[in-house]
Amino acid sequence: MKDLVREKELQLAYDRIMARENLQISGAPGMGKSYLLRALGQKLQGRRILLELNFTGVFQFEELVFRLHEGIEKTSAQHAGLEYQIKRLHQEHPPHRIRQAQDLLEYLKTLTTMLFQAGQDVIISLEDPEYCEVQEIKPEELVKEFKKMSTAANIQLIILSEFPHLKAAEQIHLQKPEAHEIWVEATTEQRNLVDYSLGNLSFLKALVENINQHQGNFNPEAFFKSHQNQFLMLRQRFTDLQWRLLRALASEEVVTQPHAFDFLVRHKLGAASSVERALRNLLDSAYILRDEKGYRIKDPLLHRWLQYLYYRKTF
After folding, report:
1. Domains in the chain with CATH codes
2. By C-alpha distance, which of 23, 66, 19, 15 is closest to 43?
3. pLDDT tens, 197-211?
4. Which of 34, 127, 130, 292 is least surrounded by CB atoms within 10 angstroms?
């Protein structure tokens, strides 16, 4: 299995950056957003300095500040023209003095001025900013400040996220890949693998590794074993009805009308009003999503684990 190279999207992203536009690479988890950014970074070597920031899973304000400082120092160490300025900046704004949101905003303003005065073209990339969960500053406020930074003539912003943070015209949306984009002459089994992974490239790679390790056959028990404890712990977060609704959605792939009488009866879900509340909670917590086809479980691995656990269904 080769790495998926999205030549069309890569060239489009490169052209927009060279035109000094901000950019969002959007798409569901596992669609290759990070991989596309890495390919873009290689293509931009010598033309832009890429400052990559990832605040996923940050719950404490101190950790947010640490990640920010660490990312900036790591990048500046590779560029002699920035290293001295960043060291001086961090002497004036050491992490232990940034204790609240206002301190952080002042730091970002000073960073903007310093980068502008340095005169080198810089791209700041934010990966999944909505998963920064500190209490002191909301994700949208953090993104807003980085947008302000990108108004400087030599600073641009790239956001990697499935949620819209920039205008539609500034987004490149990554769709589910086709089997022929990964294998030159895709077999029926390989096409089935792409469908089973729901286009999630990380999931797909893990499936291929499992098959290679088991003499060309998929071993679902071995595949899902490493995820079993994680998902069983996740089970405790849901009510009994929410869990049964997840099972029902998994069994039918996509459900257009989860309030329909036949669906409720088939899966013994009870009253439509109760299902409506459970459905809303699962939507709000992003465990399921709704698109033009209907309702489905968002995480493809959770989806397939539920199918295997309760229905012994694979591909």
Report:
1. 7-173 (3.40.50.300), 227-315 (1.10.10.10)
2. 15
3. 998 998 999 999 999
4. 292
